Amino acid sequence: MEIIIQKFGGTSVADAEKIRQAAKRVIKTAEKGFGVVVVASARGKQTDQLVADALELNPNPPKREMDQLLSTGEQQSVSLFAMALDAMGCDAISFTGSQIRMMTDSVHTKARIVSIDGKRIRRQLELGKIVIVAGFQGIDEHENITTLGRGGSDTTGVALAAILGAKLCEIYTDVDGIYTADPRIYKDAVKMKQISYDEMLEMASLGAGVMHPRAIEFGKKYDVTIHVRSSSEDIEGTIITHEVPQMEGVVVSGATIQRDMAKISLVGVDNVPGNAARVFAHLAKAKVVVHDIVQTEVSSDKANLSFMISISDLVAAKEAVEQIKGDINCRSVFVRKDIAEVSVVGVGMRSHYGVAEKMFEALAEAKVNIDSITTSEIRISCSVDEDQAEKALKAICGAFELHKPAETRNA
Ligand code: ADP
Ligand code: ASP
Ligand code: MG
Fold first, then answer.
1. Which whole number is the average pLDDT over 296-321?
2. Mutation test residue for ligand 2: of 150, 154, 228, 312, the one with most atoms within 8 Å of CB
3. Cβ(175) to ligand 1 under 6 A?
4. How far is the CA of 237 from the centre of ligand 2 (A)?
5. Where are the domains of the chain?
6. Fewer Cβ neighbours under 10 Å: the N or C end of the chain?
7. Atom of ligand 1 nearest to the CA of 171
8. Is 10 near ligand 2, meaning CB less than 6 Å away?
9. Is domain 3-174 annotated with CATH 3.40.1160.10?
10. Does ligand 1 lie within 6 Å of residue 125's CB atom?
11. Is the minimum distance from the CB of 173 to ligand 1 under 6 angstroms?
């Protein structure tokens, strides 16, 4: 039996009517002969509400307890989904992450999947049931509940596709596909028919919250096609897949904005072998996820080392830096909050020049000051003041004509 994974995000299961609508779509797919595994997120803004509940009682809640709490949102949706299917005369069974042995590491609130036991799901599919799995959650080797990071239900969906041998994972959400930029911020953004895993991974990692980055990594590694589409309209969305030659013709595919960032600069660090390794080993031990790193030699014996992190990791990162400061003979530590990163992404950048120049010109014209610049083969990112970030994104989108379909752009 061919298996399809259908993942429904928070807004797509927000109330009884939405769950019924999603359930009808699932039944339609099952009637075509597919084995359907549904992955559901917590309803509406429930995860946000649970976070707020926790913070009301404790400004720094233990991460293990946070996971214990946040996982309850998905547990509710899956059982409600199964009940809706049952009411429509369809045999269904729901599972939590622990019930399908969704094993993760022990990094609470941003755990990574280690293995999944597909046997229980397969058995139920063979019995003709629709299986509904709680997204976003797993358990570690000590049976503690873990969560995969905000937006992590996408990763549950694609990881299940990988282990069950499903070729397709459909992501049903509140937009009808991947746009050249977040359509909530840049109203003129256009929908893409397809995007490569590499571009989508960059976009997702740089703030395009429509997909969880780990989901794209699983998709690429295990050859799962991901179809991001609307849960309210039955139209084609965007296919995330391997790169095809014509994708290179498009220089810039999309632009992103990443908010809630902070930058830590270690000024005047001894310029000797091993110091960068010491700093980042310390940060890794503190479980801080480091984004862009810039190191520059400022004299024969001193260097400046800066790195970007999300604001949620700032306390842990500052602590780690304080501990290591003396060992690396750092003159001073400079922390900048209220910073955001705007980026352009496109595999075509590999073979085109002038992209950086055009981006910087657009920012200059919009009178946006650039704090720091980082690049990879397929992206350019500039960090800017957070309150200028939207203006910066719109200026970049205009410069690269991201309001036009790819084939009609001059930029
Ligand atoms: P779900 O709850 O279904 O997982 P999310 O809120 O996580 O939905 O993701 C959908 C949202 O992602 C959209 O409402 C949109 O505002 C945002 N988004 C950010 N960047 C993009 C983009 N490039 N294309 C489409 N949507 C985007
Ligand atoms: N419910 C979780 C969140 O809001 C996971 C998800 O929706 O993907 O982040
Ligand atoms: Mg999401």
1. 94
2. 150
3. yes
4. 21
5. 3-174
6. N
7. 3
8. yes
9. yes
10. no
11. yes
Spatial distance between the Cα atoms of 362 and 382, rounded to a whole number of angstroms? 12
Instruction: Render pLDDT for 352-400 as a digit per residue (tens, 0 to 9).
Output: 889 999 999 999 999 999 999 999 999 999 999 999 999 999 999 999 9
Query: What gap in Å lies between CA 351 and CA 378, rounded to an integer?
Result: 10
Residue 70's closest CA among 92, 96, 34? 96
Distance 48 CA to ligand 2 centre (A): 9
CA of 151 to the centre of ligand 3 (A): 4
Q: Is the CB of 149 under 6 A from ligand 1?
A: no
Q: Which ligand is nearest to the CA of 180?
A: 1
CB atoms within 10 A of CB 135: 32
CA distance 24 to 26: 5
**List of long-range contacts for 350-358, beta carbons under 8 Å, 24+ apart:** 350/248, 350/377, 350/378, 351/248, 352/251, 355/251, 355/252, 355/380, 356/380, 358/399, 358/400, 358/411
Q: Is 210 in the pocket of ligand 2 (CB under 6 A)?
A: no
Q: Please give the Cα distance from 215 to 212 (Å, whole number).
A: 6
Q: Which residue has the tokens 């801080």?
A: 288
- Return the closest-CA partner of residue 121 out of 38, 41, 42, 221: 38
Rounded Cα–Cα distance for residues 201 and 398 (Å): 23
* pLDDT range class, residue 120, cuts 50, 70, 90: very high
Other CB atoms within 10 Å distance of the CB of residue 110: 20
Other beta carbons within 10 Å of 35: 22
